[in-house]
Design brief:
The chain is α/β, with parallel strands linked by helices. It has 3 domains: 173 residues, Spore Coat Polysaccharide Biosynthesis Protein SpsA, Chain A (Alpha-Beta Complex), CATH 3.90.550.10; 165 residues; 66 residues, RNA polymerase II/Efflux pump adaptor protein, barrel-sandwich hybrid domain (OB fold (Dihydrolipoamide Acetyltransferase, E2P)), CATH 2.40.50. The protein is 21% helix and 26% strand. It contains 11 helices and 29 strands. It has a 9-stranded mixed beta sheet. A 5-stranded mixed beta sheet has the order 5-4-1-6-9, sandwiched between helices. It has a 4-stranded antiparallel beta sheet with strand order 22-29-27-24, with no helix packed on it. β14, α10 and β15 form a beta-alpha-beta unit. α8 crosses α11. The mean pLDDT is 93.
Amino acid sequence: MVSIVILASGFSKRMNENKLLLEYKGLPLIEWAIRNAKNSKADEVLIVYKDDEVKKIAERYSVKPIYNINPEYGQSQSIKLGFENVNVKDGVMFLPGDMPLFSCDYINNLIDEYEKNKEITVPFILNTIKAPCIFPYIYKDEFLDLKGDIGGKVIIKRFEEKLNRVYFKDIKIFYDVDYKEDIKRLDKKLVLIKGAGEIASGVALRLKRCGFDIIMTEIEKPSTIRRKVAFASCIYEKECSVEGVFAKYVKRIEDIERVLKDDKIPVIVDESLKILDYLNVDVLIDATLSKKNLGTKIDMAPITIGLGPGFEAGVDVKAVVETNRGHFLGRVYYTGKAQENTGVPGEILGYTTERVLKAPKDGKVKLIKDIGDVVKKGDLILMVDDVKVEAKIDGVIRGLIKDGYFVHEGMKIGDIDPRGNVDYCFKVSEKALAIAGGVLEVILGGF
């Protein structure tokens, strides 16, 4: 048997108004929490409050209101009042009042798991313990000793070996509201992009600007040529930005949510998408531009998208976006494949292969010039060990491999743009944005 105590007597210090009365889909946040609790299989529902508006809402749902006369004492005071006022002295769930997406189904899931062994029961996602948790009533005295703005984390840590972890994969149900902007975040789709090179980053940039939450994966040592417009750069630099959108390298999956909440793109090293063992996403995009599918499956997410000829729509992914320059660039295919890669660089002012720099041998790169530098034909761009690599045309260096990178003979290591516009070196290409348009068509088309 489980009682639910809704915590609703905080000061919302980061907002300077009672956040629980902010509306989400026509109802105050606190009303969502109350409805979810009342519709669950909990044996009783109480609410610890300080504002009369909250009490009035609770009474409409026949929820027992407990007035917190000393809310300034912090969260521990609310928890103590909860333990002291429950009639069902078995399991006590403490439900934050600002988590509208934690529905009755999820509450019931926790209750069912608690009933199996009557131990402290905690939601667990991305290797992190979340709220709401259920505590056996026998821990009442432990809670009564707490002081200040301290909740159940202290008790959880003290009895960690006894925890009953309940695994979840939908991070959005744990979203809470600290600022008004967080209300909008509740409805954001979560997109996972495999790859963080220039094309992948152009897609991420456009989706981010359209209000999506983005996670990106990369290999351990990406050879990204267009480093200044690729979120893969944060693998080396820890944090980077592309046209004002920031990405941050995360070493542990438990840091992903924090980076998302900071409105940045978390980039994690994960070549085989193991993250999907821990997390559900709304959209999966394979943006590695591989010549063949290296493991992406159509059922990995509700919407799966492959970029380029390595995927078959309806078999590997639900949709494929054309990546070949020309009339069909950015076009969406719901059956079949994109055009085969020609292997010839796109033509710019009549130049194709001449504008591409390739490694003359296996070895370590030492840069002489860098991205954004204007060069003339014959200028020394870099060294691979003791071998010179020179410009074959006049222009500006738009892409160049990272200094110190170990390359293999024949590998693409740079790109000179004969148009000579330095600004192009620091902006996502028209090709990447066209492909991003195709991705948006798939997502927003309700496929």
